[in-house]
Amino acid sequence: MLETLNEVIGKINSVVWGWPMIILLLGTHVFMTFRLGFIQIKSVTKGIKLSVTKDPDAEGEVSQFGALTTALAATIGTGNIIGVGTAIALGGPGAVLWCWLSGVFGMATKYAESLIAVKYRVKTKDGRMQGGAMYALERGLNMKWLGMLFAIFGGIASFGIGCATQVNAIATVAKENFNVPPLVVGLVVAFLTAIVIFGGIKSIAKVTEKLVPFMAIFYVLGCLIILIINYDFIIPAIGAICTAAFKPSAFAGGLVGSGILMAMRFGVARGLFSNESGMGSAPIAAAAAQTRNPVRQALVSSTGTFWDTVIVCLMTGLVLVSTIMKNPTINADEIPNGGVLTSMAFSQIPYLGPIILTLGIISFAYSTVLGWAYYGERCVEYFAGSKVLVGYKILYIAVAAIAPIVALDIVWLIADTLNALMAIPNLVAILLLSNVIVAETKKYINNLDEKDDTPVPIIED
Questions:
Q1: How far apart are CA 459 and CA 234, in angstroms?
Q2: Which of 40, 45, 102, 141 could pair with 107 as two cysteines, CB 3.0-4.6 Å apart?
Q3: What is the number of domains present in the chain?
């Protein structure tokens, strides 16, 4: 029964992640990059500075940094560690390049989707900011039905990409490295999640503002140590990644390039799972930010993709490929999943390696659980109203508790499929509102301190 279900979901996943989806996603990334005049440059030069600049007089629930770290909490997760390893196992080393390129060009898409999330956001009677693809589709394009579809996909996806896969990953590394029973891990994570998410976006942002910088620096330092250990294989690893992205090839350490289609498919899919550019999730947090105009927060939000994929995922990919090439005893074809491959890489650091990896996965995954709880909550409120929110949170916590005993392969496939289904209506919003995005950018990009005095509509429940 389980094998049949896995096979069915796998076939659906193959359809939604076929060439049409890859072309739509990468096409949007490239299209918005050129339409916005390579906004990535502004994102790095101005967005990073703005991300740590407070704007308390502007309307919103949390600071720009709080919104960014909430989004980063949701995006920097197991996709950066286990997901990259899975991409290499399934798509060959070339998947790393496609994952990285999806991040570089995806910064423009993240900018665009965050801009319209802020521009078309609304406010509830009790002062909570609501925004995202569903409101952009409804208010900007009069396509509420498509906004409803996005919200439904997002609400369901939160249990998979945001909760089950993350807790499952925590349980796996805790079992392998410290022999902690999976069910115990699930119950502990569920308890810690409940403490935070019932406090809303302000509570979540307060935790992520402290957790995200720590976990990112801690993990990057671990990667740098491994790259120093593997220094003589870094250049060969880069060569393998670039070559295998375009043609089937055999490399040292049992690495085999699967060709451009497989490398693109798994690289782009894992890139989206990692940075969520084009999926429409991160803008939900961006809409809650205290920002004086949409462009200001859009620049801040786009830096999330830079940190998440351009930096962290690339480092993970180099670590894994160089490790395989350095250690001939590792047979890439026999590695069951990305988590095992990553564990092998970090075991090169004497004594501390497993600890760094375990703490990295735990902090990455737990922060994702928190961020996606907020995303799911906003999506569910959009299509079902605020009365069901307590029930949603209880169900979310219950999923966290039982996630360690769910088959990981099926969860990954379901999450991948829902990612694509979320991305489609969001990409429609970006493309159809591209003229608005360009106009807003021209209006504010050279005067980021200008305040947008357009009143935010107050909505009924």
A1: 54
A2: 40
A3: 1
Please report the DSSP string for 58-101 in residue order: SSSSB-HHHHHHHHHHHHSSHIIIIIHHHHHHHH-THHHHHHHH
Q: Which domain holds residue 14?
A: 10-52+60-442
Residue 123: φ, ψ to 5°: -130, 140
Burial 247-286 (b: 16+ CB within 10 A, else e): eebebebbbebbbbebbbbbbbbbbbbbbbbbbbbbbbbb
By C-alpha distance, which of 321, 344, 349 is closest to 236? Answer: 321
Express each pLDDT in 140-176 by its tens digit: 999 999 999 999 999 998 998 789 888 888 887 788 7
Q: Identify whether 281 is part of a domain.
A: yes
Average per-residue pLDDT in the chain? Answer: 85
Do the Cβ atoms of 84 and 307 come closer than 8 Å? Answer: no
Rounded distance, CA 87 to CA 102, Å? 13
326 exposure class (CB count in 10 Å sphere: 0-12, 13-18, 19+)? buried
Query: How far apart are alpha carbons 306 and 297 in whole angstroms?
Result: 15
Is residue 454 in a domain?
Answer: no
Q: Which helix (H) or strand (E) holds 201?
A: helix 200-229
- Tokens at residue 423, please? 């991305």
Cα Rg of the chain (Å, integer):
21
pLDDT in tens, 180-213: 898 999 999 999 999 999 888 788 888 888 888 8
- Residue 256: give its domain's CATH number: 1.20.1740.10
Is residue 101 situated within a structural domain?
yes
Cα 129 to the center of its chain, rounded Å? 22
SS (H, E, C) 356-395: HHHHHHHHHHHHHHHHHHHHHHHHHHHHHCHHHHHHHHHH
Model's pTM, two decimal places? 0.89
